[in-house]
Specification:
The complex is a heterodimer of chains A (418) and B (154). Chain A has 418 residues and is of the alpha/beta class. Chain A contains 15 helices and 17 strands. The longest helix of chain B has 17 residues, at 85-101. Classes of the chains: A alpha/beta (418), B alpha+beta (154).
Amino acid sequence: MSGGSPLRRGAVSEEAVARWRADFPILATEVRGRPLVYLDSAASAQKPRAVIAAMVEAMERRYANVHRGIHWLSERATESYEGARAQVARFINAAAAEEVVFTRNSTEALNLVAHSFGRLMAPGEAVVVSEMEHHSNLVPWQMLRDRAGIALRIARITEAGELDLEDLARKLEDGKVRLVAITHMSNVLGTAVPAARVAALAHEAGAAVLFDGSQAIVHRPVDVQAIGADFYAFTGHKLYGPSGIGVLWARREWLERMPPFLGGGEMISSVSFETASWAPPPYKFEAGTPPIVEAAGLAAALSYVEGVGYEAIMAHEAALLDHALRRLAAIPGLTLWGRAQDRGGVVSFTLEGVHPHDLATLLDRAGIAVRAGNHCAEPLMQRLGVEGTTRASFALYNTHEEIEALAEALERVREFFA
Amino acid sequence: MFDDLRDLYQEIIIEHARHPRHARRLAAFDAEAKGDNPLCGDRLTLWLARTPEGRIAEAGFEAKGCAISLASADLMAEAVRGLSAEEAATLAEAVQHLARTGEAKALPPPLAERLESLMPLGGVHEFPSRVKCATLAWHALRAALGKKDEEAVS
């Protein structure tokens, strides 16, 4: 944290942020006569016009089912869909487009790995997750544990809310761990996990490594090969893209070894009444009609993020986070949760004597949208010893005025409940 | 900025949430029920003690939750004293209706005046995501009374 005015050197200009905001039609919304202050992007981000237009265009000009039709329109739709796959591959620096599997969301991607990688595991082998996982990267592994007799180990976090790498190393010591599945950035604490170090630790112990990148990829560039990941999952709707599409990237060797997740059309190479053989990856993991329109939207979202540029996004969000941490820390009775050195644009807090849900309702009356409760991370709440928190999360379109609006509203809430 | 919130957070709600009078486990009780809103994490356990005639002698609760759910539980414990099981179930139904619609059902005495004391809970109807906070304790009450509920407790 550093002091100084909200508009420091290196920060993005107000004019630039105003131009970005103008790309998001919904930000002009008024909530009960007040301008919308949307601080809930970690739950789902708003969509730029380019994404909306791409989806409309996909339906107006290039829509048919993909990979099936022997007709012109289906070929156009297939080109568009496979083009999106290639774009995702470039975006995360995958070795090949065939390593990109489209899913419904991160949750489905994680369930896919739990199911299909899980089939490669033997009873007594183990998976490691951390104390700060979203339920989507915990429950599938609990289900696998109960189904397949594997062990589930929980790597601890430190008091600062950072992944405890020494504890992780201890959990890997006996060589029974086959997979380390860890968030790349906590949706509650904002903590960024040192992915390359985690991957190195996992590989030294003979384990593969998966990152839940749902939050991280929104706030910083991801290079799956540089990290040394085996699996990387993220979702479109948090990355300014549509809901209904997620991505599982996996090294080709894993996709080849793993059995399919869902059975159905598109994922087979031949079927008789008795048996079926599988299509090659990624199609083996894409049963049924895929998210065709959503893929066009996701591709547009990636282009949009590239157009703005991660460098600018990171500079702006760092300034917002800095401002928010400084401003909120000065509010009496307010406790900030998580103080990782490396973190993204998420601030979780509690206000003494005010339940997070009451707080969220009060903020909503001021037009401020935040998330309140356990953030789908109930075990983390138990670890922190809180019932729940209120979370403000930032995206490229948020402003310093919005941070001020939040802080002023919180001061009013204190008076209201005093 | 929060003037219109006084509809929801009336003084009486904040007062009962902060200093509940019935937030305790009863030493001796005849019925117990739990309520829980898994989406928001509110949890409540309710105990009822009955008179020899079967009326509610006392209600006590332990709860974790927001101001609305705590105040609702405390107001409920006060309002159901002396009521028969049938009367308490009728009152519960009226409060659930009040929370959803903001409208008070016409009830016979003595229930009408009990419902009157619960009118502050009606403010929640303008906040659809918060209706469950106000009704949690009343779902638990119906469960403790062995009454079927049109909605699940959780």
